[in-house]
């Protein structure tokens, strides 16, 4: 088990992109949204969405997206302030054209200013760029697909066993932006429905991350230094944990981090936490 986990008393996990790595339901969502785009632009829609997943597009997890202005915002994860602004094609907007537009810190309302927190937001942001007004119907259709026999998530090898071992000596909590119905469905697919001590859904990270972390720490009566936050979005799960004095374990496939910090560990996959 990872040494950081061994020394902790409370571990807070993210869900999407952290406890599973499948993207089939995101692809379904994107394909459903694509049908609302003019046929002449559908190929471009899919090309942009695929580029996001492959890490070759300005829109990436941890960025912000201004729906009205079609701007992509690079955010300082420690202060939630805008550091640079790009257009959809990746060109940088001069600072004098945007510095008065965004407050410090940025306020994400998930309608006009989007925090790209996980893979669910790639199809949504792409659809908004191509002029799709209503994304909710496609979201509902995706949720319906996720209860069919066609949908299947492959549990990560050793994850359930590792979490159960961890739970024997620690409190483990799940904090996710997904709604309760989706979370219950995903946890059953992953065979993790009976693992967590406490589950917080519709968390509205990063806007409420700090408040939620403080509430959980108070509930379990532990010191901030005894808490670990594990997630794949630095802004949503890691930066605010570090600011509060917690440990952060950042999941990133390339072992890269926006910030160097004494309390930060970077891994490629959550299953690395449970290897001897």
From TrEMBL:
SUPFAM superfamilies: HAD-like. Keywords: Hydrolase. GO terms for molecular function: hydrolase activity. It holds the Pfam family Hydrolase. This is Hydrolase. It comes from Halalkalibacterium halodurans (Bacillus halodurans). The lineage of its organism: Bacteria, Bacillati, Bacillota, Bacilli, Bacillales.
């Amino acid at each position: 088990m990872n040494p950081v986990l061994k020394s902790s008393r409370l571990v807070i996990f993210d869900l999407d992109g952290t406890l599973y790595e499948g993207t089939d339901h995101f692809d379904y969502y994107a394909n459903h949204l694509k049908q609302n785009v003019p046929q002449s632009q559908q190929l471009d829609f899919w090309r942009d969405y695929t580029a996001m997943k492959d890490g070759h597009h300005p829109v990436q997890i941890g960025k912000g997206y201004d729906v009205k202005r079609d701007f992509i915002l690079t955010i300082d994860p420690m202060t939630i302030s805008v550091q640079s602004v790009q257009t959809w094609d990746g060109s940088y907007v001069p600072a004098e054209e945007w510095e008065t537009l965004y407050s410090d810190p940025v306020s994400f309302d998930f309608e006009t200013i989007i925090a790209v927190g996980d893979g669910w937001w790639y199809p949504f942001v792409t659809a908004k760029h191509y002029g799709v007004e209503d994304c909710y119907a496609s979201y509902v259709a995706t949720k319906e697909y996720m209860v069919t026999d066609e949908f299947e998530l492959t549990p990560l090898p050793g994850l359930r066993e590792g979490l159960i071992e961890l739970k024997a000596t620690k409190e483990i909590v799940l904090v996710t932006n997904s709604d309760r119905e989706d979370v219950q469905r995903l946890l059953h697919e992953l065979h993790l429905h009976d693992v967590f001590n406490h589950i917080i859904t519709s968390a509205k990270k990063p806007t409420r991350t700090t408040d939620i972390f403080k509430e959980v720490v108070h509930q379990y009566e532990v010191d901030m230094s005894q808490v670990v936050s594990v997630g794949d979005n630095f802004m949503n799960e890691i930066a605010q944990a570090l600011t509060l004095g917690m440990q952060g374990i950042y999941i990133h496939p390339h072992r890269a981090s926006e910030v160097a910090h004494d309390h930060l560990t970077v891994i490629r996959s959550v299953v690395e936490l449970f290897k001897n």
